[in-house]
Amino acid sequence: MPVNPIGRARWIAALAALAALSMPPVADAGVDLRGSVWLTDGRTFAHWAHPAHIAPVRQRPAGSARPVARLHYLTEDGFPEVYPVLRRVKARSGRIWLRIRVPVRPNGRTGWVRGAALGPLHRVRTRLVVDKRRLRATLYRSGRRIWSSPVGLGKASTPTPTGRFWIREKFRVGYSGGIYGPRAFGTGAYSRLSDWPGGGVIGIHGTNQPYLIPGRPSHGCIRIPNGAIRRLYRLTPIGTPMRVLRRNRPARRGAIQP
């Protein structure tokens, strides 16, 4: 039986396409992390970016590395997503890879994306530190303290998580006399349960129960007196790194804290 040459060509093209889909992506050879550039010093400056498109976040700076997450455009509240950028490295191919923090459970996850997956880098010089032992939050700019306030944190059964996080969103609350007070921030931290809707995101917000501050009255969120959070709102840009400490133990001066 004669073979239709057009049908045969289509069949061969389909097989080639299937083979291409089944092949792993080509790795970037020769990625040497010793030549990488840190984009944060953990104390006085940091960088962040919005996603440019949806892309996998990989375990290593290589196209063949295992995906650990995916970029997404919006936060749980519908604001543009914010990814802290920790490190930049250039492969021998010329491709740029960026190490980022990822807002997913479990807390603290990082990974690598190709540089083209993110938009322009934004620089911040602020850093928010929350001390769980002292029940106090402090904001620094270029290493200098510019704001401080007592806070309310998570109770023993729903503790505020410790670790390194960041400010993902900030907004004015419609009704300032409500449980969230007049201003609020969404962070890159997650709890088993929190005051915040949308999946246990740890929020920073005002309160209509100021007499519970300082203390541990919440489901994980960080409550701040309304007057203090108004000032924090003015001083704190999107992308500000946030560290929640078990105890007051500042990082060593000059040390990289990714």
The secondary-structure class comes to mainly beta
Radius of gyration: 22 Å
Shape: elongated
Arrangement of strands in the largest sheet: 11-10-9-18-13-14-15-17
Which CATH first-tier class of the largest domain would you pick?
A: Mainly Beta
Distance between the termini: 67 Å
Low-confidence stretches: 1-27, 250-257
* Proportion of residues in extended strands: 35-45%
**Total DSSP E strands:** 18
Q: In terms of quaternary structure, what is this?
A: single chain
Tally of individual domains:
2
CATH architecture of the largest domain: Beta Barrel
Number of helices: 2
Q: At the fourth CATH level, what is the homologous superfamily of the largest domain?
A: L,D-transpeptidase catalytic domain-like
Helix content: 10-25%
Order of secondary-structure elements: HEEEEEEEEEEEEEEEEEHE
At CATH level 3, the topology of the largest domain is L,D-transpeptidase catalytic domain-like
Task: Please provide a written account of the structure.
By secondary structure, the protein is mainly beta. It folds into two domains: 91 residues, SH3 type barrels (Roll); 121 residues, L,D-transpeptidase catalytic domain-like. It has two helices and 18 strands. It has an eight-stranded mixed sheet, with helices on one face. A hairpin with a 5-residue loop joins β5 and β6. The chain is elongated and about 60 Å long. It starts with a helix and ends in a 13-residue tail after the last strand. The N terminus and C terminus are likely disordered.
